[in-house]
Every structure is written in C-alpha cells, then in structure tokens.
Amino acid sequence: MILEELAFLAIAVVAVVTALLALLTRELVHTIIWIALFFVDLSALYFLLQAPFLGVLQLGVYAGAVTILLLFGVMVTRKRIFSREAATGIGPGPIVLAGLTLTFLALGSEELPQNGVVVHAYDPTLLSQTLFNADGPWLLLLGLVMLSALAGAIYLVREGRE
Amino acid sequence: MDPLAYAPEFVVLAAALLVFLADVLGVRRLEAFGGIATGASAVAFALVLADLGTPVLSGLSTLPAGVLDAPLGPGITSFTSLGLVFQAIFLLAAFFVSLASLSRPSAEAGSAVFFGLLLLATLGMLLVALSADLIFLLLAIELASISTYLMVGYSRKEARHLEAAMKFYIIGALSTALSFFGASLLFGAYGGTSFYGLGPAATPIGYPTLALVGYALLIAGLGFKVTAVPFHAWAVDVYDGAPTDVSAFLAGGTKKMGIFAFFLVFLAPLLILGHTPALGPRGFASALQLTLGIAAVLTMTVGNLLALLQKEMKRLLAYSSISQAGYMLIGVAVASGPAVAGATFQVLAHVFMKTGAFLVVAAVASLGVGPLIEDWRGLGPRRPYLSLSFALMLLSLAGVPLTIGFVSKFVLFSSAVQAKGPFVWLAVAGLLNSALSVFYYARILKTIYLDPPAPTDAPAAVPAPAAGIGWGRGAAILLITVGIVALGIYPGPVLSGIQAAASQFVFVGG
Amino acid sequence: MSAFSPAGLLALSGALLSIGLFGILTRRNFILLLISIEIAINAAVLNFVYFAAFAGATGGLTGQAIAVVVIGLAATEVAVGLAIVLALNRLRGSINVAEAATLKF
C-alpha cells in the first residue's frame, strides 16, 4: 500500500510540473514535449487506478494522436496565430472560479472517506459490453459529433474550389 | 421501442447525410441544399407537433409523470412534453434560418457544408431536448456547438469570420471542459448521471459539497452557452463577426438549448431539495436559487446597459440578446410550473424576435447599408415593409402590448410575483430592465423613421432596386412578422399548451 | 487491488483544472490555449476514472465508459480547433497586410 501511495505522489507531482512547464516555457516545441510527458504521466495514473483500458486509450489518443496534431499545428503556424481577441472575451471569471473550486474541493474532500478507498480491477470486456449496450447512446452521439467535425474541418482546410 | 418515436431526429439526420452525399456526387446548386434543409426542418416540425397533439407516447404509468417514454436506453433519453415543445421551437429557428439562407449568393462555395452543418446542429439541439442523462446532454450540446463553430467560419476567405470562429471555439471548448468537470463531480457525489436518478431517486446526496461545486461549474459551463453575465463577453464579438445568417441561428437557436439544459440540470435538484429537506441540507437549494437569481438580474442589467452604448446594429442586437437570456433565467431560478412556462414562452418569443431581427440586418446589409445604426437613417420611407417588420420586432423585444414579447414577459414576471418572497424582486428587476431597454429600441426606431437620410446618400449612390433582399429572406421575415403579431394578439392555445407541458415537467421533480 | 486517499486525487484534479484555467487566461498563442483546455478536460477525465473506482461495481464501469467518450470528444475538438487555425493561417499567410492589421498584441 505504501508503495502505491508513493507512486501516486510521484505521478501527481510530475503531472502538475509538466502541465505548468508546458504553459510557461518559451519555445512552442518544448511545450509539445512537456504536454506529451503530461499525457503519458496521466496514463500511468490510470494504470495505477486499475483502469488499464483507459491507460492505453490515453497513450494512443492523447500521447499519440493529439500530440502529433499539436506538433503539426505548431510547425505549420509557427508563432503566427495569436489570439488577443479570444483572451479578452473571457474576463476574470475563470480565476475566481478556479479559486472557489479549489477551496470547495478542499472542503468537499473532507466528506469523503479519509482512510483510503479500495480500487478494484475490472475486466475490460465488461467495459466494452456497457459501452456498446447500456451506454450505447453516448457512443452513437460521439459518432455524430465526429461526423460534424469531419465534414466541417475537411471543408475548412481543403484548398478552395470556387 | 417505437421506431417512429425518433422520426423527427431521423428526418433531420437523413437530410444532413443527403446534403453531404449530394455535395460529394457533384451537385452544386445552393437551392437544392437549402431546399433539403428547409423541407426537412418543416417536416420534422410537423412530426413534433403531431407527437405533441396525440398521446402516441406511452409508459405514463411506469415512469414519473411528464417522463413519457425512454426507448433508447433506460435513463438516457426520455420524451417529455416540455422537451417536445422545445424541439418544436428549435425546428422553427432552423426552418427560418434555412429558408432565409436560400437567398445567400448562389455562387458561394461551401453551401452544402453550411446547410449540412445547420442540420447537424439542429439534430444536436433536438437531442438536447430528449436527454435524460447529464453526459448525453453534454454530448448533444457538443454536437450543436461543434457544428456552429464551423458554421461561423465556413466562409473561409474572410479573416473576420474565421477570427470569430476561433474565439467561439475557444470559449466553447472552455465551457465543455468546465461542464464535464462539473459533471464528473456530480457523478462522484451521486454515483450516476441520469437526471431522474439525480433527483427523485430519493437518495440523499452523499457528498453535498462536491455536488455544490459540480453544480457551480455547470452553471459556469452552461452559462457560457446561454451568455449569462460573468460569461457573456464572447457573444458580442462572435455574433458581430459571424455571417449574419449564422448569428441569427446562434442567437435564435443554439442559445436556447442552453436554457433547456438549465431546466434539465437544475429543476430536479431545486424542486426535490427545496420541498423535501430530509433529502439534503436545507441551504443547498436556496444557495443554488440565489446564485441563479443573481445571475439572471446581472445578465439582464449588464446586457441592457451595454446595449445602450452601442453604435453598431449587430452588436446592439447581441447585447439585447444577452439581456433577454437574463429574463429566461428568471424561470430557472424561480423553478415553478408557471415560471418554467413563462421562460419557455419567452424562448419561443425570442426565436421570432431575435432570429427575425438578425435576418432583417442581413437583408439590409445585402442592400448595401453599412453596419452602424446611423447608416439606417431614413430607411423607413425607402423600404416601408422591411422597416415595418423590424419595427414590430423591436417593439416586441421591448415588450409592447399586442406583440409576442409582451405576452411572454407578462407570463414570466407574473409567475415570479406569484412565487412570492424574494422572487418578487426578480420581477421588479425585469420590469425596470424592460423600461430601460425601451430607450435603445426607441432610438433605433427614431433613426429609421424620423432622421433624414444621410446627405451622401444621393439617389445615384443607392443600389439599383433590382438588388432585392431575396425571396427566401423575404418569406422568412414575413412569416416571423406574422408570428409576432398573431401570437401577440391571440396567444391562447400555444400558451396553454406550453403551460400544461411545463406543469407536467416540473411535476417530475415534485 | 489498491487503496488511495480521495483527498489527494481531488487535489490533483483541482490543481490541473486551475492550471488549465490559468493558461486560458494568460496565454495568447492559440496552441497554448488549446493545450490549456486539454489539461482541464484531462482533469475531468481523471475525476471520472477515479470516481468510477469509488462508485462501486456497476457505477465503476459507467465512469470508465464516460471517460472513454470524453477522451474521444476532446480529440475531436482538437482537430476542429486546428482546422480553424489552419484556415486562418492560410488566409493570413497569403495576405500579410491583414496580418499586420489584425494582430495588435
């Protein structure tokens, strides 16, 4: 047990540090490296939480696909796309929200069992069963979201036909 | 499961696929795509109305009243009569916008993508109205949102539109992140995500603080969608930067799905916890109601005050749209049957008023008039019918009697007064704000009708009358104007239908 | 089988959400904004996975199913964001004047 607590502590520290470094570093390419490490680190946490399927998914989708997409975006746009407009539209709301959330989460965590919760391992086949049966509508809807994204995104980046 | 139950959704989905297929097969006519979209939304609208009119949906005995059927996975979707009312409202907005978009320049590339995405966004909105599950709801919102990000940017040759799309996208993604974080906390607190499990399953909340943080984050996440005030600033730039037809759809359509999402997420806990203190700490419901009430008052006040300062027509309409969202939030905060009915009727009214107003702006822009309110000087005599429609829309937005806007505000504010206690203040704030809003609407009317045309506007500079507003846009504006007046004079049947649906819906919680 | 204290996991996901919000507020580069949002969404996924374990036998699978869906959704969103930014980049890449005019930061 103490081993797992230590592992969790290490993973948590790495997650926070890599996330911060990804946002604070000056070179965009370094950002991509840090964020890839962040994704891999979270995947390790999922394995530790006995969710191996999610660990693999996190590696494949985030550490793989999303990182490559982001790297591609950095290479193509260089430093050209800055979004002053985007940032001014948000206002101070999120900072307040972050503070409140942290405070209340600290309060809320006291309600939870204090002495550790036993985490069970699941059979991944059961996960696939629930994903395609009882929870099938979610997957269906995700497919529609992807259809919409595909249609629009292909049109946006395709060379114009007039 | 009755396969016909999902007929409206299937019609819209099939139409979207048909549009994409036709595009791939080489069809290049805007009229074809627009015709499919307009026809599909009209057919789906008729189907929804038929569902509302006839009790084809069964299962009343086994499920809580108002939850009629849940064929697609128990506890994930459900047919409620209020949901069907909202579906009809969404389809109305989609119909008006696609009809008006038939008048887009037909040489324009990407019209298939425009109408396909419009249909997919409509499908997302329809599914929002069906959801009985928090995750399904958020995914349906996401379907509508992703489609609209791409619709804003679909004219890919205009940096202005693409910048608006980028901003809309960032805000939307932020709202997604907040909503899902909130949903994850609620999942932790309740052990499930079905709305009917969150409420009447009658399990005491295990972890009230977690649930409260979850609800707060959902207020923020959904607040971005309905442009509630601390989260409103993006809306003005996006509505302003987007193509005007798309702005009409954003303000008249997708924003409304946020209101229904607010109903789904908050009514059950408010009603349950408000009426049965045994199920949770006493302060929980009132804290939520207080937050929602403050958000409503802030939203209407800030929206109206900033609208007073605007010089551009689209930005003014965007701020007025924000203030209208504040009125709708009153219904969520009060959380009673009449209040929900009032907010729903206000949503219906807003579809007519705001979609119509943006479509008029698009029409006027196609006549070569600039974006400033000043540019509209003397439009009244030159374009009497168009100006009359716009005047009626503005009067309705201000809440002048004999228009739909008056009926909706009357129902909404009187429901807040009925609810007594602190809610009376919401009605007072709403009335004061309505009075405030009259100033800027009247200023526009004065500009259109009383101010002389700009001196540079010599007859030679006026575009040839042949450059009309297009028959599709004209027809949409005509239908909307007729609707505003007809429902303003004789709201009876529609209003009583909405009231019945709302009282049934609210009873789910009680 | 293993045991964790809930407080630590909630603290981690709360911290990640705050880092994401911090990034959205302070960064100006579009890619960094995208990354900030991904960090925040990952915090939500982490919560789902953790509460899945916490919720017991059947609820656990539901939580993991939600996590799968949210990961897919987030990846879709990144693709859409990059499409928008590539379209904008192409436009500005070809018209440098417009770039100078719209990029005052």
Give the topology, please:
The complex is a heterotrimer of chains A (162), B (510) and C (105).
Chain A: H1 2-24, H2 28-48, H3 52-77, H4 84-88, H5 93-109, E1 117-119, H6 124-132, H7 136-157
Chain B: H1 7-24, H2 30-53, H3 81-101, H4 111-130, H5 134-152, H6 159-190, H7 195-198, H8 208-226, H9 233-241, H10 244-275, H11 282-308, H12 313-334, H13 337-366, H14 379-382, H15 384-398, H16 404-418, H17 423-449, H18 471-489, H19 492-509
Helix pairs in contact in B: 1-2, 1-4, 2-3, 2-4, 3-4, 3-10, 3-13, 3-18, 4-5, 4-10, 5-6, 5-10, 6-8, 6-9, 8-10, 9-10, 9-12, 10-11, 10-12, 10-13, 11-12, 11-17, 12-13, 12-16, 12-17, 13-15, 13-16, 13-18, 13-19, 15-17, 15-18, 16-17, 16-18
Chain C: E1 2-4, H1 6-26, H2 30-55, H3 57-94, H4 96-102
Describe this structure in words.
The complex is a heterotrimer of chains A (162), B (510) and C (105). Chain A has helices at 2-24, 28-48, 52-77, 84-88, 93-109, 124-132, 136-157, and one strand at 117-119. Helices cover 76% and strands 2% of the residues of chain A. Chain A is built from 7 helices and 1 strand, in the order H-H-H-H-H-E-H-H. Chain A folds into 2 domains: 1-82, NADH-ubiquinone/plastoquinone oxidoreductase chain 6, subunit NuoJ (Four Helix Bundle (Hemerythrin (Met), subunit A), Up-down Bundle); 122-162. Chain A is globular, with a radius of gyration of 20 Å. With 162 residues, chain A is mainly alpha-helical. In chain A, helix 1 runs antiparallel to helix 2 (28-48) and helix 2 packs antiparallel against helix 3. Chain B is mainly alpha-helical. Helices cover 74% and strands 0% of the residues of chain B. Chain C has a single domain, classed as Orthogonal Bundle (Helix Hairpins). In chain C, 88% of the residues lie in helices and 3% in strands. Chain C has helices at residues 6-26, 30-55, 57-94, 96-102; one strand at 2-4. The model of chain C is unreliable at 94-105 (pLDDT under 50). Chains in contact: A-B, A-C, B-C. The interface between A and C is large, with 88 and 81 residues.
